[in-house]
Amino acid sequence: MHDRLQYESDMFTAPEPVLTADSPVLRTHAVRLPARGRSVMVCGVVATVWAVAGFATASTSSGAAAIGTIVLALACAGLTGVGTLWSP
Amino acid sequence: MVGSIIPIVYGERPRRARSLLALYAVSGIAGGALLGVCLGAVGSAVGLHQAGPRSVWLVVAAVSLILALRELRVSRFWLPQSGWQVPRSWRRTMRPALVMIAYGAILGTGLPIAISGSAYYLLLMWPVVLGSPLAGIVLFGVYGFARTTPVLLLSRVTTDTNGLERCLVVVDNSVAIVQMLSAIVLAATAGWIAGLAAAGV
Description:
The structure holds two protein chains of two kinds.
Chain A: H1 2-13, H2 36-60, H3 62-82
Helix pairs in contact in A: 2-3
Chain B: H1 2-5, H2 14-46, H3 53-71, H4 90-93, H5 96-109, H6 119-130, H7 133-157, H8 161-199
């Protein structure tokens, strides 16, 4: 209880933090995003591999194509949710 | 987010802390599902899934690839979002249970606040393009639940604000990793959908 009271007390004096993905605190990490050229290459390779996989899957089974789409959409939803740790 | 919500349960009895966190998680899922069903209903009314599916999917693939590059900071451009934050003052003026419900419901939708991940915009597109309220409920329910998981996990490994601050250093470093994973999923989605469209599905 004391800890919470201390925290509540700090809240009155501390300025309201505004943390977004571009906040300086997020750009001083040990883990950084790859360089621009490498990022483009990774995106291109991943998109190409999945395009071939998608075409091959859809050509053989529409059910498997639908399942793949659902899995990707769910992965997008999950990662987007988890990735909002610092959102205000 | 985690630094604002978890301290609410510090000092509470374990059972009450669990109840408050459960309220937060349930309202997060409910808030997300509510937005999802609305988006799905809009999509169903607009009928994008019926009009020229191949062209619609190609647009989704292109948007997904552009968002992947934005997520990796290759391209920087503004996308519509609110600068509003859930007020911290609610913790002083409202009862803890009500605060958890309000925080969970608002953060679970992710819409009225700043949007930190580019993948969120693709997530907004899915129920509309599919024209399915059910798909909206599932996708945004998963989003709402995933959004609550960092709070639930960190509340289990910390018991005070000092412990939480130590954990936040680790959390801080995980942001870039999640961004990279999101970009890979966005790029994979772009490729997959383009492949399906090319195959005529």
